[in-house]
Specification:
This protein is an alpha+beta fold and 138 residues long. It has one domain. 26% of the residues lie in helices and 33% in strands. The protein has 4 helices and 7 strands. The strands form 2 sheets. The protein has a 5-stranded antiparallel sheet with strand order 3-4-5-6-7, covered by helices on one side. A two-stranded antiparallel ribbon has the order 1-2. The two termini are 22 Å apart. The mean pLDDT is 81.
Length: 138
């Protein structure tokens, strides 16, 4: 992104975090988010964000949000299975538009962030889409 004489680089993990905070500034707080981690795929390319949910949410575990080739997000909810020493995927949603991230993650963790600050109107969502460069999506 270029602004006058300055060039800004935003990593995918930073973009996801910023999008969530723009849609609902209190979402991370409501989900008890901690341990934010950048996801690196098998080719060494950054493509997402993982964080732990805790606190008062019904389902505690890890949310992973990754950018897929269609320029949408894949969101999964996992928990470690200590008996098998493997990660257990409990829920997965593919091709999620950024404007739906809050509701999808709310459903996965059993929370309801429905704060008054969440973007609610169609125009607000369109403005946010243009801001983040998703103006071609409807």
């Amino acid at each position: 992104m270029t602004n006058n004489d300055y060039t800004f680089e935003l990593s995918i993990a930073d973009a996801i975090e910023t999008q969530i905070k723009t849609l609902d500034p209190y979402a991370f707080w409501a989900w008890g988010v901690k341990d934010l981690t950048t996801i690196i795929d098998n080719d060494g390319i950054e493509n997402g964000l993982r964080f732990k949910t805790s606190g008062l949410v019904k389902n505690k575990g890890y949310i992973t949000v990754t950018l897929n080739p269609k320029d949408y997000y894949d969101v999964s909810f996992t928990k470690p299975n200590y008996r098998s020493a493997k990660w257990e995927e409990l829920n997965r949603q593919e091709d999620v538009f950024f404007g739906d991230l809050i509701d999808i993650i709310d459903n996965m963790v059993g929370s309801n962030t429905s704060s008054a600050t969440r973007i609610k109107s169609e125009q607000d969502l369109k403005d946010a889409a243009v801001y983040f460069g998703f103006s071609n999506h409807k």
